[in-house]
From TrEMBL:
InterPro entries: CinA, CinA-like_C, CinA_C, CinA_KH, Competence-induced_CinA, MoaB/Mog-like_dom_sf, MoaB/Mog_dom. CDD domains: cinA. This is Putative competence-damage inducible protein. The gene is cinA. Belongs to the CinA family.
């Protein structure tokens, strides 16, 4: 089946809000085996939204309409969809009861506000619609089936849309699929997408069922394998030979086989298994590396301390970088990165230390251009330093530096 995404809201067109809903829905559709060929964003305008819905119905089996279900006058999605399908709006008693209960609880903690008449607008639904109760808000989701095309209306706030999709919409779509769709993800790091694709080009060219696709991430590549079968057990069996083949080809580059496992989580788990501790010594990344590690539950068993040595003085005083090193080689150098990593281990007694120093921009130094970053890893007395040249703005350079610091730490751990 084909699916189409229409996200509604003038604020999306103006760039005031980043359209994360489209990215989420596209990923979930892929997991369900739905082919998404079209996405669009429409402002709060009845005529243009009507046109978008009519066009989508002609070419897609499932049409998602995200946003525009609120209580205000510029929330037009439900009304417009009803008009296109020539359905009357009727009050749904269950939704009205839910709104009453939800607002009573909300007003307990916000006594300065009150329940206004326009809140009841959300209890008006197109006749014959399947109502999906929204546990996190007052706007219900709606499913409208009409002549072979299904419209699925979802609230715009991600905190409402995502739980509603996972609990109500995904099970509904699975029941509509003639086949069971199962997918698995093999995650690799330390290799670019083009290099990864080259290693599996023969598999991609021959793919039928299961299918495989690569997705580039910062510092890593995800390879998704998807299989279709009549039963879930059969689809799962079909995935296994491809997973084994990918593991054979990529070897130690593979860091995870579960969608939810992040690179930092894999590194933390590896260090926990080996009973090792870590210190970070950061300059241009300003604590972003330690922040990613701390995001992992249980990171306290691994991370001993994090230093932000942004100035030369901090590098000298906190992790014993030599004054002569800074004068002769500069703060952005292989020598400095090496001393930062070694000093991190020495000062804290950690088994490993990772250092990052570079020019993130917008200006570089005399000795190196913007994007030059040195990353060091001291592990059990052995220190490795790598030089990188990243492209992009200041934020992008810092993000790439953090990702590659994790990649280098993992590579050093795997070589032990």
């Amino acid at each position: 089946m084909t699916a189409e995404l229409i996200c509604v809201g003038t604020e999306l067109l103006l760039g005031d809000i980043v359209n994360t809903n489209a990215a989420y829905l596209a990923r979930e559709c892929a997991k369900l085996g739905l082919s998404v060929y079209h996405q669009s964003v429409v402002g709060d305008n009845k005529r243009r939204l009507s046109s978008a819905i009519r066009t989508a119905r002609k070419r897609s089996d499932i049409v998602f309409l995200c946003g525009g279900l609120g209580p205000t006058q510029d929330d037009l999605t439900k009304e417009t969809a009803a008009k296109v399908l020539k359905r009357e709006l009727v009050e749904d008693p269950g939704t009205k009861k839910h709104i009453q209960k939800f607002m009573e609880e909300y007003l307990r903690w916000h006594p300065q506000e009150k329940l206004t008449e326009n809140n009841w607008k959300q209890a008006q639904i197109p006749q014959g619609a399947l109502v999906l109760e929204n546990e996190n808000g007052t706007a219900p989701g709606l499913i409208l089936e009409e002549e072979g095309t299904t419209l699925i209306l979802l609230p715009g706030p991600p905190g409402e849309m995502i739980p509603l999709f996972e609990k109500k919409v995904a099970p509904y779509l699975r029941r509509k699929q003639p086949e069971v769709i199962c997918s698995a993800t093999v995650k690799i790091c330390g290799m670019g997408e083009s290099q990864a694709e080259t290693k599996i080009r023969d598999l991609i060219e021959k793919q039928t069922n299961p299918t495989i696709a690569t997705y580039a991430k910062t510092g890593e590549v995800h390879i998704r394998i998807t299989a279709k079968a009549e039963k879930e057990e059969e689809a799962q069996r079909m995935l296994q030979p491809m997973i084994r083949e990918l593991e054979k080809r990529f070897g130690s580059w593979v860091y995870a086989r579960e969608e939810q496992t992040t690179l930092e989580a894999a590194v933390v788990e590896l260090m926990k298994e080996r009973g090792m501790t870590l210190t970070t010594v950061e300059s241009c990344t300003g604590g972003a590396l330690s922040a990613r590690i701390i995001d992992v539950p249980g990171a306290s068993q691994v991370l001993k301390q994090g230093f932000i040595t942004y100035s030369n003085k901090a590098k000298r005083n906190l992790v014993n970088v030599k004054k002569s090193t800074l004068k002769e080689y500069g703060a952005v150098s292989e020598k400095c990165a090496k001393e930062m990593a070694k000093g991190g281990c020495l000062v804290t007694g950690a088994d490993a230390a990772v250092s990052v120093t570079g020019f993130a921009g917008p200006e570089g130094g005399v000795e190196a251009p913007v994007g030059t970053v040195f990353i060091g890893c001291c592990l059990k007395g052995r220190t490795t330093v790598k030089e990188y040249h990243f492209a992009g703005n200041r934020s992008s350079v810092r993000e790439q530096a953090v990702a590659n610091a994790l990649v280098l730490l993992r590579a050093c751990l795997m070589e032990m």
